[in-house]
Design a protein that fits this description.
By secondary structure, the protein is an alpha/beta fold. The chain is 36% helix and 12% strand.
Length: 316
């Protein structure tokens, strides 16, 4: 995981840069937009912000001049990074945290449910230091251990059931890392990402919302195993196809062992899924494209909420 202290210090310092820096970066993003595929840009913008009607701002909407850190420093910094392009009186409704229930008014959120009417949950790239971490995996799939690994907090029913079922089975290196430490046989020590990358198969269970490890696992040369996801973030988990981008398993894990055996023998199929996962990840690895999209989500929000001339800088 990226150094949290460095992330906070550098991002706080970013907020003290002079106005001309943001004006220059704004122009750079507009210039970059001219080289982008307009279809790809529109597709992703429409995915994150599904609303087409005018937005009625709630009383809870906050102006940029009153925007302060409430809970979640990472969330605060990730939204603040793009508020520099808007005037101080511009209003936004946002939620910082893991809640996935849909508000009755359009709200900027980190995560939302995939199924149902989720249009009022507008996805924004929040808590990205924790979630948007990718790896450069130097170990090929065929060189890895023929086993499945998982470490993480087991506080939800699905994770508790998983770790209790597989913590001591052959071909599994599974354990919870709960804090405070529980006096249980499946409570184990943490494993670093490089240690986990030594395994062919990595489990990616959802918790309060999406699986935190999903992004780096899909960027690796290991194979992602998980039940069909229920939640999505900026990573567009709702577009992931079972047995195309990841190996789908039953929610009760009843087929997990048989699928491990299958993909241990069918390397070509495993390698194809890993390649497809890498293609999905590649969409999020162009920093300029990601920044432009963040800016466009907020710009669209201000336009739909009838906040005219919200942008601080004029388009040339």
């Amino acid at each position: 995981m990226r150094n949290r202290v460095f992330y906070y210090v550098s991002n706080y310092a970013y907020n003290f840069l002079p106005v001309f820096f943001f004006k220059k970066k704004y122009k750079k993003l507009l210039d970059f937009e001219r080289s982008c595929n307009p279809g790809e840009l529109k597709f992703r913008l429409d995915y994150y912000l599904k609303i087409t009607d005018k937005i009625r701002l709630p009383d809870t909407a906050v102006s940029i001049k009153n925007f302060k850190k409430t809970n979640g420093t990472g969330y605060y910094l990730d939204l603040k990074e793009f508020l520099h392009y808007f005037k101080k009186n511009t209003l936004f409704a946002y939620y910082f945290g893991d809640k996935t229930s849909v508000n009755n008014y359009p709200t900027l959120v980190k995560a939302r449910t995939i199924e149902g009417d989720n249009a009022n949950s507008i996805l924004f790239k929040l808590n990205k230091n924790r979630h948007f971490y990718f790896v450069k995996d130097s170990i090929s799939f065929l060189e890895k251990k023929d086993s499945l690994v998982w470490r993480g907090g087991a506080y939800q029913k699905n994770r508790i059931a998983f770790v209790q079922k597989f913590w001591n089975k052959p071909n599994f290196n599974v354990g919870q890392t709960n804090v405070p430490r529980a006096d249980l046989p499946w409570q184990k020590t943490r494993m670093s990402i490089p240690e986990q990358l030594q395994y062919k198969f990595i489990f990616c269970p959802e918790g309060n919302d999406v699986a935190t490890n999903l992004k780096w696992v899909m960027s690796s040369n290991s194979l992602c195993f998980m039940p069909k996801p229920k939640f999505e973030t900026w990573f567009m988990e709702g577009l992931l196809k079972p047995n195309i981008h990841y190996v789908e398993i039953n929610s009760d894990f009843s087929d997990l062992e048989s699928k491990i055996k299958y993909f241990s023998k069918h390397n070509d199929e495993a390698l194809q899924i890993i390649e497809n996962a890498h293609k999905h990840v590649a969409q999020f690895q162009n920093t300029n494209f990601e920044d432009l999209l963040c800016l466009k989500v907020l710009t669209a929000y201000t336009s739909l909420s009838k906040q005219k001339d919200a942008l601080k800088f004029l388009r040339n």
